[in-house]
Amino acid sequence: MTLLDGHVVVVGLGFGDEGKGAVVDALCAARPTTAVVRFNGGAQAAHNVVVDGRHHTFSQFGAGTFAGVPTHLSRFVLVEPFALAAEARRLEAVGVRNPLSLLSVDGRALLTTPFHIHANRAREAARGANRHGSCGMGIGETVWYSLLAGAVPGEVVENQEVIGTPGEAPTVADCATPSVLRRKLDTLARFYAPLATPPHGVDELVALYRDFADAIRITDGDEAGRLADSGRLVFEGAQGALLDQYHGFHPHTTWSTTTPHNARELLAGRPHAVLGVTRTYLTRHGAGPLPTESAAVLARFPEAHNETGEFQGAWRAGHLDAALLDYAIAACDGVDALAVTHLDATGLKVVPEDGSAAVDLPDPLAWFGEQLPVAVAGYGPDRAGYRVTEARSTINA
């Protein structure tokens, strides 16, 4: 069996935007796949896939959707029902029939609400020039609130002051039990009232979230394990290892484990391959370190699907950084192979591990192949430009 015939965990080796969506789509199109399992992040993910002229930016749906592969949102995902419903409508507009029928959600997954989103945006706006680079989607606020059990007003938890009396964090399963959901949302609304008040009231949210629960399949128990035993899974990571909550460069990080560790926990020892995704040059969306940043690189490679965001900030680019690539691979406890995207880019350079001046990179595929096997090679944005190889590895098998 080749490297990609079994379960595959796809992780980004940069600051996000490496091309994970296109890689997941290519993997699902190349081999029979039971499901795409999302194992971190939430509605801030933006994984672009282009197939036969159809384009979609996958956020909560898995990037195997165009290939007809169902999505499972694991307990590690933060679920935002309003954004998910909007994404389902966009998928229908590009020809995906009944997208919600392709979706299952672990009931333990945390619920991102308008209270979290508005509080997140208020905090980021207040930081002014010291912004962290948040997407403004409530991700960090959702995680933070879930950590507040037993905390009291005035206490500092994860460098943020507790501004009220917290309660239990709402979950997807709560959406099917209005009395439980109402209690949790009432507490959430009171907690965040000093910071932000969204336009949706608790009564409206309870009704809308109940409709959401009726529209999707909510699972309990080890759904990921059941799926893994029934066929090949592709685990789709969000963001990149250099934004990881433990291995990134704080405070410019995400409140999420972006390395393969959540996927490995879901797989519970089952054999798998870890595929690390990287561009042929380095990019970053928003604030934070980018050691090889270059205005020339940014100008040379215009971005079709990424632009300056109100909260996230500007799109940035720089030369490939060998030291950061090695660091990202180490943060993942190793990867079995690489997926290299944007191989159609020309005039590339790489900054060596010792930090010396950038050198020309005339054959990027050969350079990456000297580091690790290249299992997926991507040229251009369309699935037609992706090649899935027969690479072999035994690191995680």
TrEMBL record:
UniProt organism field: Amycolatopsis roodepoortensis
Protein name as it appears in the record: Adenylosuccinate synthetase
Positions that bind IMP: 17-20, 239, 254
Location of the active site: 17, 47
Keyword ATP-binding: no
Main location: cytoplasm
Cofactor: record remark: Binds 1 Mg(2+) ion per subunit.
Residues reported to bind Mg(2+): 17
Localization per record: Cytoplasm
Similarity-based family: Belongs to the adenylosuccinate synthetase family.
